[in-house]
Amino acid sequence: MSRASLWRQLFGGAGPADRSAAAAGAEPMTFARVTAPLAENMSALDGDFSLEGIRKLGSPVPMLVENSGTELLELWLEPFGQDYWLRPGEGFTVTSYGTWHDRPFELAHQPGQIQIWACSCFATVTFPDGTEVPGGHQRPSGMYGT
What we know:
The strands form 2 sheets. The chain has a 4-stranded mixed sheet, with no helix packed on it. It has a 3-stranded antiparallel sheet with strand order 1-4-7. Helix content is 25%, strand content 27%. The chain is built from 4 helices and 7 strands; from the N terminus they run H-H-H-H-E-E-E-E-E-E-E. The longest helix has 15 residues, at 31-45. It is of the alpha+beta class and 146 residues long.
């Protein structure tokens, strides 16, 4: 699923994500479904968007993301659109914090990329030792204007 189709799913349209969500029995993504957890979690953050601030939201749900392939793998985290790159054999932990509607994550895969939507709108990406992975980590030269 492309980023464009994810946004069509969120804000209207009949992209492939809409059909697959309906076929799986999942509630379709709507603007209200995104904004309700966002509003609740934003007020709890009180302006602190640091790793520690997001962790204070509580209700952590970690998900290990590993690259078991042989090529560089992009992890794209939404809703804020941050990229992280995993070399073969590497793994990061994506953790959702705060409240969400019915599940902490939605995931889509395409060759070379995993897209994760944090349904709480707030998630962290950490190395195995628990330290924060910086956005753009290991981004190939020339990607996204670099």
